[in-house]
Amino acid sequence: MESVSNANFGPLIAYLVPGATVLAGFSPFSPILRTWLGAAPADGPTIGGFLYLTVASIAVGMTVSAVRWALVDTLHSYTGLPLPPLNFSRLGKNVAAYGLLIEIHYRHYQFYGSMFLACAIAYTCYRVNLGGILPLGWLDIAFVVLEVIFFVTSRDTLRKYYVRSQQLLASDARPHSRRAVARNRTPAPTDNKSSTPRP
Q1: What are phi and psi of 54, to 5 degrees?
Q2: Residue 140: in which H helix or E strand, if any?
Q3: Is residue 197 exposed (0-12), middle (13-18) or buried (19+ Cβ within 10 Å)?
Q4: Long-range pairs of 82-91 with CB within 8 A, sequence gap ≥ 24
Q5: What is the pTM of this model?
Q6: Model confidence band, residue 20 (pLDDT cutoffs 50, 70, 90)
Q7: pLDDT tens, 125-177?
Q8: Contact, 125 vs 28, CB < 8 A?
Q9: Integer Cα distance of 11 and 111 in angstroms
Q10: How far is Cα 56 from Cα 36, in angstroms, rounded to an integer?
């Protein structure tokens, strides 16, 4: 596997980790997943299983990201964090800066928002595998605390991404045409009669 670097760290946390979390949650119900994860006692993880697990984790992670967009993004938008207007005509010389904002803010938002959903799915699988809701223990409390942290952190990282993206690509709410600008620059006509000194 390729080593983790700045080039692949963003997709790794945005898609691979949430997808693997969901697959780990479903593993008690699937012998194949347990083999891929090396959880089956008789079979150790293989290269083929590792490859399948990686591809499946990315596919599931992107699916979770789509659900996150539909649910978590919408919830943030309706609770005071809407997508700001951006003027992408200003992107030209700001491509590198905008890419940096994606890597240091939006990728982390994708991770926290997707993990909020992935942990909920994995926890549901865990409770179903136990055969009921009660009794509750320390793991259930840890799940609730972790979900609160993921949700609050997702909101914070999304807010930072929106604010700094708007600072970089602020949309001009009052577009001016060249003719309008020229008209504004034209000096007002003067009254020659009143400005001419009397003899």
Answers
A1: -65, -50
A2: helix 138-168
A3: exposed
A4: 83/162, 84/162, 84/163, 84/165, 84/166, 84/171, 85/166, 85/171, 85/173, 86/165, 86/166, 86/169, 86/170, 86/171, 87/169, 87/170, 87/171, 87/172, 88/169, 90/168, 90/169, 90/170, 91/169
A5: 0.78
A6: very high
A7: 998 988 766 677 888 899 999 999 999 999 999 999 999 999 999 866 444 44
A8: yes
A9: 9
A10: 10
SS3 category, 191: coil
Scan for tokens 């992408």, then name that residue: 88
- Counting other chains too, the contacts that 184-188 makes at CB distance below 8 Å and 24 or more residues apart are none
pLDDT in tens, 85-120: 989 888 898 999 999 999 999 999 999 999 999 999
Q: Are 116 and 96 in contact (CB under 8 A)?
A: no
Report CA 9 to chain centroid distance, whole Å.
14
Q: Say which amino acid occupies 162.
A: Y
Closest CA to 55 of 15, 114, 112: 15
User: 12 near 103, Cβ under 8 Å?
Assistant: no
